[in-house]
Amino acid sequence: MLFIFTSCASHNLPSLGGQPGQSAPFEPENGTTAASPQRTGERKPLFGGVSSLEPVLTGGEALSLSKLEALARQHNPTLAQAKAQIQSEHAKALEAGLYPNPVIGYIGEQINVRGTAGEFQGGFIRQEIVTAGKLRLSREKYQARASAAELLALAQMYRVINGVRMQFYRTLGAERKLEVQQELLETAEDRQVTVQEMFNVGQANRADLHQTRVLRQAQLLNVQQAENDLAMERETLGAIIGLLQPLGEVTGKLEAPLQPLVWEEALERLLAESPELAAAHANLKADEIMVQREKVEPIPNLFIEGSAGRNFEASETVYGVRAFVEVPLFDWNQGTIRQAKADWRRQRNEVRRTELSLRQSLADWFRRFRTALQKVTEYQNVILPQSEQRYVTRLKSYRADRETWSGVLEAQHDFFHRRLIYIDQLVAWRQAQVAIDGFLLVGGLEPPAGVVPPGHIDSVPKPR
Amino acid sequence: MKKGLSRRRFLATSTAAVAAGALGGRDVQGQEPTAGSRQKQANGPDSAQSSFSRYSRYHPSFGGPPESDHYLGKLVPGLRQSGLPPVPFEAPDLGKIPWRMVGGVKEFEIRCTPVKREFLPGQFMNVWGYNGSLPGPTIEAFQGDRVRFVVHNELPEPTTVHWHGLELPVQFDGVPGLTQDLIPPGETYVYEYDLHQAGTFFYHSHVTMQESFGMAGFFIIHPRIAYDPPVDRDFGLIFQNFFIFPNTATPDSMAMDWNWHTINGRSGPYTTPLVCKHGERVRIRLMDFSPMQHHPIHLHGHTFWLTGTEAGRIPVSAWVPRNTTLTGVAMAQDFEFIAFNPGDWIFHCHMTHHMMNHMTQQVGPRIRKKVDVSRYLADLPNRPPVEPSLARPAFEVPGYPQKMQGMEMNAEAMRKLNGRRETRGMRKQWHEGVKGLMTVLRVLPEDLYDRVMHSEEAIQPGEIFEAVARRK
């Protein structure tokens, strides 16, 4: 089993679990399972068991976030893909450091000279002596790439867990929105009954009746859309987790203490701890080694060959030895060295590009977070209580014969409608919080990023 | 108890009254005779008046042809004797402005103030008035008085006071700009003039929106000697309208609609009944100070004679018998009648929307079965399912329901309604039929009147009403 250690990358990651006081990206809210490896000091397997197509849920139980995260670790296929990529890079490192095999063969020379079987009939063995630490450098290069692969796998884990969390909140929100839409349908039906009552006493006309039927039917469509939305959200959640069976109801809370974020602190943490950036640094390290490796490539390896056989003309056993080197007279690997240096420069800018991309992405998520937080705060503190109080005031006024029922229904509709907006803002706030806490890594079903970008110097049959 | 009526001629008595008025000096003590003292002086041992014997003050009777003084009790006097000062004026739920004599002038202090008035039990509204009252307390004076009004403006904006119907020096007419400068907030202004008229007048702000906010009050000027035939009761009622949105207590003086209706600052059934004795001659002075609404005022069980307007007394030859009198905005109507018919009589504006307050559509849970608003309040994030009320057979009749569902009164409100002496012994659910511009005229036989108005013995709901009904 492969384990992820926080020290696996050349890029320093002070805490994969997030800053103190923040929710750990791999730690469920109830804190019951899957604590951050670095926080607990435990070695947690990055990947669970092999994904199964067999049903894993017994059904009927409401699924908590921690349960869903655990399922995703087991069943999301991109995590298995990321694991394979790590294995691939480690295999390359292994292969690149292996010493060249000796060559053995049979030699028959000057056959039929003077009617003999030949001047030499025998065997030889040839060995290439690798110089200048080429094998060590090659292995280090691929080990650095393996580290990058591990960091990218960690990033993939964030993508999956973040994806599960975001989708969990979207599903939770869809469940609550469906409830509110059903309440709004009741209100629309009440409005229809009310207008029919008014029609009976001449306070509404046929056009009003038609309009209430329109509104009621439109609200029914809203309910149906909310049902479709919920089904879609559940399917999406199941897909991110990697399950083929339908998911049931999820359980959890959309609301949580509203804690603001400071831009400078969020940016500092992101640049210090982002697995993507760490992987870029690991690849830069690999490219540094690659330049060294290509620089030593022209230093000739020594080929030594020994032979033993029978000289039939002299009727005696003879031996031979040869040694030779390739003289880097015309091709001293100058082109590849230039290409390696170019790759190193490219990768160095890739690190900078990654930083800037993260900063840009953080700005977007931070905007979403701040906007949603402001809206959620105001909806909690002012808008919802005031809308609810307006509804209560009209209800009480109706009870005291000072308000029309139509006025009550309008206030009721406003209260329910604003709860829909509030739920949307809660989901938006949760998603932004998950993204920022999870290093902006989203998309749990996107294929894991490869270590080597297209066009990079890649291995030859013998990786180097 | 029936008393005989003294014989006298109306015109002769009237002449004597005028003469007495001319001779009557101002009260240097600053006090008019009390009702009790006047009553005691007035009720002679034998007041039988055989010339009015064709009309019974105690039973329904026609009283002869329309040309007759007997006709519908037209000139039938009250139980008081003629030639006496008028009975005190009574405006239920309103006070009077006290005065003091200063250098031969009756001086009244008037403060223009914001008012919090309880229209219905527990329903306090923010209006404006005088001396903390809406309508303002009554100014009561006598023909021939010289009066001075020291007006303090305690409102946050300028105002003036207009003396409606009075023939006075122009500089005291109270019209902003035209006759005087506005009285700034916190400032005082003095009006002073002689009263040569008698009748039902009123005072009010001459700033339009302040009028809509209720700033008016009675200004009753009595003749020194009461008009003949003399009345035993002199009641006054000011009708007003306001538009007050649901869930607020402040009128919208800019509104073109009016949904709260008050008589002397209260809405029915919180208006205090007018209580008189069986057989008394009663005068009621109506004054309409609604912003834009006229009121056809209807009295049950009696026919009354229009005897005065906001301009003063109407000659007897021009009196008109009515059951309903249309009182327009800024108009006063005095009418008189003999309270021959015992009972609790509704007395109301006949405009249907004025017979209720803050009307709302009669739809929604209040006409549905088993639906209570408290169920909505108990679970705000959700709501009860809708009951299809139209499935009930009654809804097959277009126009159903028409019944105005009664407002639920809590125990405290009921205590306020029935805690007044004037309501004792009325039917238990009397308040259900008294709403908006409605009050009640209670005509009670003397013994029942005394039980209601003077005794401290317990009276059960309905007891007085049933006693009256039994006697019929």
From TrEMBL, chain B:
Keywords: Signal
Record bears the keyword Transferase: no
Keyword Transmembrane attached: no
Name of this protein: Multicopper oxidase type 3
UniProt biased composition (Polar residues): 31-54
Secretion signal span: 1-19
Source taxonomy: Bacteria, Pseudomonadati, Pseudomonadota, Gammaproteobacteria, Chromatiales
PROSITE patterns cross-referenced by the UniProt entry: TAT
GO molecular function annotations of the record: copper ion binding; oxidoreductase activity
Record-linked InterPro entries: Cu-oxidase-like_N, Cu-oxidase_C, Cu-oxidase_fam, Cupredoxin, TAT_signal, TAT_signal_bac_arc
Domain Plastocyanin-like: 117-224, 257-363
Coiled coil: none
Renumbered residue ranges of the record's region Disordered: 21-59
Record-linked Gene3D superfamilies: Cupredoxins - blue copper proteins
